[in-house]
């Protein structure tokens, strides 16, 4: 099995354990790997004001607020 196959398997295991998170890895030139994650959803808006509102809505949904 290749190292990338092993890394992809580990990534899939993490994704299954932590739904709602985007998980990825970044191989380095020194043969190490940096693991990364960020909560979903990824938000894209047309303005800072709209982005702020979208973030507030996502945070409220995360907390279970109506």
How would you describe this protein?
The chain is α+β, with helices and mostly antiparallel strands and 66 residues long. It has one domain. It is 47% helix and 21% strand. The chain has two helices and two strands; from the N terminus they run H-E-E-H. The protein has helices at residues 3-17, 48-63; strands at 21-27, 33-39. The protein has a two-stranded antiparallel ribbon. The longest helix has 16 residues, at 48-63. It starts with a helix and ends with a helix.
Labels describing this entry:
66 residues, alpha+beta, two-stranded antiparallel ribbon, 2 helices
Brief write-up:
47% of the residues lie in helices and 21% in strands. The protein has two helices and two strands, in the order αββα.
Name the quaternary structure.
single chain
Q: Distance between termini?
A: 47 Å
Q: Work out the strand percent.
A: 15-25%
Helix percentage range: 40-55%
Strand order of the largest sheet: 1-2
Mean pLDDT: 92
Rg over alpha carbons? 16 Å
The rough form would be described as elongated
Strand element count: 2
The overall number of domains is 1
Question: Structural class per helix/strand content?
Answer: alpha+beta
The major pleated sheet works out as: 2 strands, antiparallel
The tally of helices reads 2
- Write down the secondary-structure element order: HEEH
Low-pLDDT segments, ≥5 res:
none
